[in-house]
Design a protein that fits this description.
Layout: E1 4-8, H1 10-14, H2 33-36, H3 39-44, H4 46-61, H5 67-78, E2 84-88, H6 94-98, E3 103-105, E4 108-115, E5 121-123, E6 142-146, H7 156-165, E7 168-172, H8 184-190, E8 194-199, E9 211-214, H9 217-229
Parallel strand pairs: 1-2, 1-7, 2-3, 7-8, 8-9
Antiparallel strand pairs: 4-5, 4-6
Helix pairs in contact: 5-9, 7-8
The structure holds nicotinamide-adenine-dinucleotide.
Length: about 230
Amino acid sequence: MPKIVILTGAGISAESGLGTFRDVDGLWTRYDLNDVATPEGFARNPALVHDFYNARRDNCRGAAPNAAHAALARLETGLASGEVLVVTQNIDDLHERAGSRAVWHMHGELACALCAACGARWDAPAATRPEDPCPACGAPTTRPDVVWFGEMPYLMDEIFEALTDCDLFVSIGTSGEVYPAAGFVRVASDAGAETLELNLEASANVLDFDQQRQGKATDIVPAWVAEVLGG
Ligand code: NAD
């Protein structure tokens, strides 16, 4: 079981140019979340939702991992195999492109498409459309493989098991406002883990953490990793 569980959010990818929810001129501000990040919005206008995630896939392809993603990859290779697990709310693939191997995408991945009829998942092409046929069942019911508000995140049982068994829980670049991820710190803490928040500003649940450091992810994450690796 991992000894360090790291939860990441949009803030770790902000300096790679991928907007957080709160960026004043970000992609999110031009769309209503209810339209593009809920099952009801998808039912109302699937083409709009595909356009939104196609644009995000395009942004993601043009972005590169930053020093914070790279530091977490160094942490994983610098410790014994299996000791570090990244649980990310992000749907980008910047952790993987930085070299992290143990990455769980609890909110899905831009890189994947999902069949709303049979649940099959496959590698998404650059652009998807609602009428694209599922490669498994043939139904024209393609959707982004993204967990929307009101849907159950992936791997929850496995994540809770990892949280209750870790020695250290670290939250990076997440506002602490979106559940269930915002509750992970309490689960880990109640099970005896140390907890640390690394964020630009105090999150909504900063008081649940034993320690907190504020600053840009590209500054504070490499600094913390260097401390852990003793360098
Ligand atoms: P959020 O936008 O609610 O909060 C981001 C947090 O990051 C804020 O607290 C902010 O202060 C902090 N932050 C911003 N810039 C930072 C920086 N340079 N260094 C460190 N911290 C910084 O994002 P969230 O908490 O991840 O919200 C959860 C939802 O947002 C998830 O569902 C996630 O899927 C979605 N999301 C994902 C992406 C992505 O995949 N890149 C982008 C936007 C939103």
